[in-house]
Amino acid sequence: MGMFCYQCQETARGTGCTMRGVCGKTADVANLQDLLIYTLKGIALYNLEARKAGLPTAAADKFVMESLFATITNANFDRNDFVSHIKKALAIRENVKQALIKAGAAVDGIKHDSATWTGESETDFEGKAALIGILSTENEDVRSLRELLTYGVKGIAAYAEHAYTLGYQQDEIFAFMQRALVATTNNDLSIDELVALVMECGKFGVDVMALLDKANTSTYGNPEISKVNIGVRKNPAILISGHDLKDMEELLEQTQGTGVDVYTHGEMLPANYYPAFKKYGNFVGNYGNAWWLQDKEFETFNGPILMTTNCLVPPRESYKDRVYVTGVVGFDGLKHIPERTAGQKKDFSAIIEHAKRCAPPTEIERGEIIGGFAHNQVLALADKVVEAVKSGAVKRFFVMAGCDGRMKGRDYYTEFAKALPDDTIILTAGCAKYRYNKLPLGDIGGIPRVLDAGQCNDSYSLAVIALKLKEVFGLDDVNKLPISYNIAWYEQKAVTVLLALLYLGVKNIHLGPTLPGFLSPNVAKVLMENFGIAGIGSVEDDLKTFLG
Ligand code: FSO
Ligand code: SF4
User: Fold this and answer.
1) Among 38, 72, 114, 320, which one is least packed by beta carbons within 10 Å?
2) For a pocket test of ligand 2, which of 3, 4, 10, 490 has the largest count of ligand atoms closer than 8 A to its C-beta?
3) Which ligand does the CA of 8 lie closest to?
């Protein structure tokens, strides 16, 4: 069975996975994911009408958001989950349609196949999936723009879901996700109209990151400068990874008094920066590095692991029985911790009991790392930062946010960080930081040379900081600041972050380790000509370009 997926940076040969994903996604799952996205477009066609008619849209809004999130790279590998999502999608689509009919709205005009196809069995789904994949859009530029938009919307969905979990939502964001999905079904849209939608996606990228920032900081306080322990203690423990702070909170609450410690992994590291989590004595620190090293680090952790969102790597047999997943995450054979029911918390008792039977983590590192430089903390230091720039102590900032990954070429980011002159500061967010956050890069007059704002969505903080500096220095253009952008990407949330930066007017972003395989030569040209987007070269050449 064939497949076609090119949504992430590690896509095979830089052009597309066709037999099985480099990520481990099987062809049948890839095809079912395509069919799910296709069916969401049908839901969106009806739901936009429902929105216009003032009918309730909440159930479909939530379902579309969660389903988009579930198709992000490394989130869900479970065929059964996608079969049941597609069945649910067909049912929801029908519900919205019937509600429209009941309200006297005209639905006859909704004729697109995504809104009308039906199927019942897995065989039906597989047959249909074979007809509607990404390559069914023949024009490569249209396909490229449709997919760029879809991936931007997937990232928006992920961030919207985190905010939603904390009780924050915005109708305009739901409506945009659906409008964008519908746009990908419209053969009449011109290239210019699709480009405009991609830019609008950047606007909603900013909006959703701002919403999530508000949700996180209102719930857990503003991240503050923190020293994070990267060593281990002697108690049995749970490792929590992914991005979901609500899971973090409830796990910490439920482990109190059990003798079980909690450590973060990967993108959960920034939980260590939030005041609300510091009060828990059993919250030890961070264990390990970025997501792709989990096959080694989960092994030596010895205790159970809770994966709250992407990025899950297909687990090895040796530790598979210790991996628990929750939320949109899925993998055949892993234990799934059920969702919250109204007013109730998630029940983490099984994983806590499991931890008690395990050995404490094996030490793989010792020491501390520093982080917590989100916008509030940096702006509290603004005078110091501005003074350092004015005095020439700090010559330039390098935004090196984004993702880490397995690709060998990502050594570039470590070498680049090492080669940067001593009067420069790295601003980071996302798991890209693990390429240089343990290097002895020192500080400039007390300001660390690596300022970590947090998770990938906290790239929003970096934008807030840049806009504030622009104001302080009285500049009319954010590109006149002494800030360069050398960003690493992997999955679709990074696409959202990139589009958000473009929307904010940031130019000359260098994107690596490779440019997206889903950019056709013409679309790549538009991005290069209009925004100065470029790839990466050698550390030496790039430094010359940036510092030139
Ligand atoms: Fe990394 Fe994975 Fe946070 Fe991504 S852990 S790669 S952009 O999920 O979301 O930075
Ligand atoms: Fe390939 Fe990436 Fe798609 Fe996985 S998510 S199938 S690695 S392109």
Assistant:
1) 320
2) 10
3) 2
- Distance of CA 430 to CAs 196, 369, 383, 399, 402, Å? 27, 15, 26, 11, 5
Report the nearest atom of ligand 1 relative to the CA of 242: 5
The yes or no reply on domain 12-218 and CATH 3.20.20.60 is no
Q: What is the mean pLDDT of residues 407-412?
A: 97
Domain ranges of the chain: 12-218, 226-356, 377-547
pLDDT digits (tens, 9 = 90+) for 181-216: 999 999 999 999 999 999 999 999 999 999 999 999
Q: Please give the pLDDT value at position 276.
A: 98
At residue 180, what is the residue type?
Answer: A
> Domain spanning 226-356 has what CATH number?
3.40.50.2030
Residue 417, both tokens: 């960080």
Ligand 2 centroid – CA 47 distance (Å) = 29
**Model confidence over 430-447: pLDDT tens digits?**
999 999 999 999 999 999
* Domain 377-547 belongs in CATH node 3.40.50.2030: yes
Closest-CA residue to 414 (of 444, 442, 440): 440
CA of 186 to the centre of ligand 2 (A): 26
Q: pTM of the entire structure?
A: 0.98
Q: Whose CA is nearest to atom 10 of ligand 1?
A: 430
